[in-house]
Design goal:
Blueprint (H helix, E strand, L loop, with lengths): L7 E2 L7 E8 L2 H5 L3 H4 L5 E5 L5 E7 L5 E7 L4 H4 L10 E8 L6 H10 L12 E6 L5 E7 L17 E5 L3 H4 L13 E10 L5 H12 L1 E2 L1 E3 L2 E5 L13 E5 L4 H10 L2 E9 L12 E3 L2 E6 L3
Parallel strand pairs: 2-5, 6-9, 10-14, 15-17
Antiparallel strand pairs: 1-11, 2-6, 3-4, 4-5, 7-8, 8-9, 10-15, 12-13, 13-14, 16-17
Helix pairs in contact: 4-6
Length: 296
């Protein structure tokens, strides 16, 4: 994992920030987190979606990003019907970006339309959503979601990111505190997201993601790295990256065939610059790969 390389963006667009990563669990694991979650993370209570299909919990980090743990209520197959995540396997299934202020949807749509990628996916117009937090305060935000692939007409959720923009103060939706970000594993934020794609389509996904994010990739060891930012700036902590990577082994090939293109692993930042601690084993569960990374 690379820490310091030059960063360039297209025009005046701000570098997108990681809003959150979505991790789908069996309902019993959401209600009573298994040891791989409970021993590493503080889990903050969430709630139920307005449509009554999904329940969630949050793992929030000091950098303002979070992992959203979700489950279909009682693992109901009926509730999966017609839901964007209804056909997803358990594990990492999606992620969302954000930017300061509002999303320039027209520019986003134009960049994607003009890019050279043969993968033809674009975004639906932003849709306002809302709920109340546990204290009863109103939460309102917009979600800009992928349209079905123009090429295949398949569901594109997880293949490209969502965009999430707050209409009410962000801390209502992501209420960071010292207590709920003091994780046993020591993680303070997200250092890297790895997008697993077929080797034959790596260049196309790089072009598509460059257009989506409005940034120019940096190439290292044959993989494209796209710069990201975080909602909160932490002193002496580098920006995170999104890395577009093909399969590294036969197991990756099998998982890619089964799960499709999407986020396959997360690197979490542990400690600040110069801080050291005991090495932590990576988390390897169904559809989940989480690594822990110290700064040099």
């Amino acid at each position: 994992m690379v820490e310091t390389v030059p960063i360039t963006s297209m025009g005046s667009m701000a570098i997108p920030q990681i809003d959150h990563v979505v991790l789908l669990l069996p309902y019993k694991d959401l209600m009573r987190p298994p040891p791989w979650i409970a021993r590493n993370f503080i889990v903050t209570p969430g709630g139920r979606s307005k449509d009554g299909q999904i329940e969630n919990r949050l793992i929030m980090f000091e950098d303002g990003s979070y992992i959203e743990l979700i489950a279909f209520i009682n693992d109901s197959t009926y509730l999966r019907n017609d839901h964007p995540y209804g056909t997803k396997h358990h594990g990492l299934i999606d992620f969302a970006l954000t930017t300061p202020g509002t999303l320039d949807y027209t520019s986003l749509h134009r960049r994607i339309t003009r890019c050279n990628s043969r993968i033809r996916i674009n975004y639906s117009v932003p849709v306002e959503r809302g709920r109340k937090n546990p204290g009863g305060a109103e939460i309102r935000y917009t979600i800009t979601a992928p349209e079905p692939s123009i090429t295949t007409q398949h569901n594109s959720h997880g293949q490209i990111p969502l965009w999430c923009h707050d209409l009410t103060p962000r801390d209502r939706r992501v209420p960071l505190t010292m207590d709920n970000t003091d994780h046993p594993c020591g993680a303070i934020g997200i250092a890297q997201l790895t997008l697993r794609v077929h080797a034959s389509s790596k260049a196309d996904y790089t072009d598509l993601y460059s257009a989506i994010m409005g940034t120019t990739p940096v190439w290292r060891l044959g993989n494209a790295m796209l710069p990201l930012d975080t909602p909160e700036t932490l002193p002496d902590v580098p920006r995170p990256w999104l890395v577009v990577e093909g399969p590294q082994n036969g197991e990756d090939e099998v998982e890619l065939s089964r799960r499709g293109v999407g986020i396959s692993e997360i690197f979490l930042r542990v400690g600040r610059k110069g801080e050291r601690g005991p090495a932590r084993e990576s988390i390897r569960e169904e559809g989940v790969m989480i690594h822990f990374s110290y700064l040099p």
